[in-house]
Fold each of these.
Amino acid sequence: MHRSVPDSRRAGLRRTAALVPAVVLLAALVSCTSPPDPLDTPCGVVVDGSGSGSSEDGFDAEAKLKSSMLPFLDEQGCGSVEFAPITRSSKSSPCRVADVDLDPPGNETTDRDRARAKARSLAAKRALEELECARTQDGSDVWGALDRIGAAVSGDGGGDGSSAKLLVVSDFDQADKDFNLYKADLSTEQKRSSVIDTLVEQRGLPGLKDMHVYPVGLGMQYHGRPSESEDFEAFWAEILEGRAQAHVDYDYR
């Protein structure tokens, strides 16, 4: 026997059916407005202001910086970024720009993705300002720049740098008033080790322990000279990984 649904029950079913889309929509809105995971990786960017960084045939520091920095900041989850120049005396160079908070605070109405993108754009602008200043000075003290950026991202050397990520946009040609890498013999492991011993004795090691270093442009001045390039890269690998105990990655090379 067919039984009709009472009007009161039918009305209740209609109200329940009407509520379902509203509940689904509310859940979607809550999901969309949930704050993203915080960005807490300390990062650093080193820019090479030496003459070799403006070479059209070799290493173009500005072009490399523009192509690598924003992907680096985004992909490495950088929450802040410090800057350091490569000049004739990098540690004491007056070229300084303010660090950037890449995960600026907001409230429930803040578009966090847009705020982060704006902060990364500001960081790219400041990196170019640092490069412009560095180019007004002579020399190429890569060693000092590495020490300066390592101290900056770890809180003047006192913090744990194990999560820090460093983008170093340079051909790594160490050439200052006291030392010129072009004049050094890097042809064997023993000779490279001797040069490194001398530099460590004179300057100490850059504070990069457990940090991740991403070189961009390393050895580009040796284009077409593979044997010299291999010796040069082995020299810096021993410094960064062997002595300073950093992790070297070539994702943005």
Note: The first helix runs from residue 7 to 33.
Amino acid sequence: MGLSLGPNKTAAPGYLYSAVYVAEKAKYIYYIDAEGLRGGLARLGGEGRMAVVEIEEASAGVPEVVNGRALVLTPVLMPEGELPNCIKPLGVLEERGGGLELVPKVRVIQWGLGFSEVCKERRPMYPALAPGTVVEARGCKKNVGYLAELGYGALLPLGV
């Protein structure tokens, strides 16, 4: 869970959001060693922010290799500015006329990796393919791109 800060460094009303990170047998949640942690409050760094953490062993039913159309669940980081070769962005799903339609809009966003309290500076920001993008996957792993082992670049097959 996160929230946007207003001009007085307080929570801006209406800007609460949550982020879900999916990783195969994730050992780390951001910079917290998750061994033995199953729930509770954890300090994540990032300018002294805290988060409620819940870890569950589950299967999303995602095959080891993803082929066909898939939805990007978490940002696909691309430090060199290029997407992994196994995915091709197609657009986003928008509600139109009572149904979902694939609209050829592809957004590349800047995604920051937090704040280092030790160095007192912001960690790098990278260009990333935005979550919610529909891609054509050709032999991809469940997570693709830079820092995929930490849950970035999670793909969910659409089965369409």
Note: Confidence is low (pLDDT under 50) at residues 28-32.
Amino acid sequence: MSTKQGMWRMLINFSGSFEKKDGFLTHIAKSKMRTEASLFSKKKKDKAMKVIDKMEASYEFFSDDVKKSRVLPNNLFTNYLHDTTHQDIKGGVLSVFTDHSIVDTLKGDYVRLNTKIMNCLSDYYPLLTDDTEVFKSNLQDIAGKPRPVRIFSIANIDFTQHKCLFQIILIDPFHLVIPSEHGGLNSREMEQQAFKHNAKNDICMTTYVQGIQSQR
């Protein structure tokens, strides 16, 4: 992890409470802006803090390619869907397409980049480097319960304008970018099982969403 990344990780208390109106990503943006503003003169700092408190983040896809499914066998990754894919997963994908702001949930984390993560992300975001700050959001329903889709995004923060744009760079329906242990299986076993189960999926996310929207 770079010095810059380590500094931000210390500045932001990921396990702490959030303001009720703020999601994880907005909390990050405001924390960074407040840190930047702390270097200003008192008068300029006080003015900046008032603006920052009212700031609202915005969200978009980095590119249309992010909406398209890919399979990376060497990295045990796919985000293609299948007719048999659980409806909760399909619903999560549809939600991201129709309302980008849902990625700003109360549950997320800073991503520690490793070789697999970088290989998966850079396939969608070629500008990725070791110093890129990437954030993982776990989707939640309106009751705050987890939904089975993870979203990876990057932040473009304009300190002078007190604005923040989060760009979605990868949709991970099956938790294959950062596999975790579950049901008695360790993360490696879960990764292999999830990829094997979904390796032959053949429905692109865009195709699925367009099909749903055409029925409305």
Note: Residues 10-20 have pLDDT under 50 and may be disordered.
Amino acid sequence: MKKSYSSLNVLSEKMTADFKGMFHSIFAAKKYITVKLPYYDYLRGQVFIEDVKDNYPEEISSFSSFNISQFVYMLYLDFMKQIKRGVKNEEVANYLSKSMDKYFPVNIIQKRVFNKINNNLFQYEEYEIEEDLEEVEGEEEKYAYLTIRIQQKVILRGEILLHDLAPFLKGKAITVEQLMAIIYLDFIKSVKENGNSVAVQQSIVKKLQNK
């Protein structure tokens, strides 16, 4: 299996590893991954977390170190719980495909190359190149890079999900890091559109208390 679904490429590694000791390594090991976020959305998340701490100081006093990296991880775990309960793969794939176009747009460039077939025959070959839209347009948007400590088994579950979704994604590549960013950015989009929700803040406090 050559395709990589995260920077750690856990699924491919496990497919090619010796069976002996494999399950121990999956469930025991923890790794670090990096999630890239637009800087404003990163700052908006920090403000949201501070709002939760201010609104529920007693309930969250034991979690003063709660930060945005942990919050992104929490949202990801909630998403994976929904997957466990049963969701149609095609519906999830459609959601992620639209989200990739929204948050990670690319520009498709058509290239033509004049190739020599033999001494008397030449032909044009066409191929496509994907470039990040922000690079093509010369934008200088700032980004934040979150380092998240995560169990290998949690990364593996995300990679397996993306592998299962691949037939519905029409060749579109998505990584676990991008999946985490999408879930977070959708949450922040909701906050920006609807404001802070008491119910959402209470659910976050409850999840922290039940950790």
Note: The two ends are 35 Å apart (CA to CA).
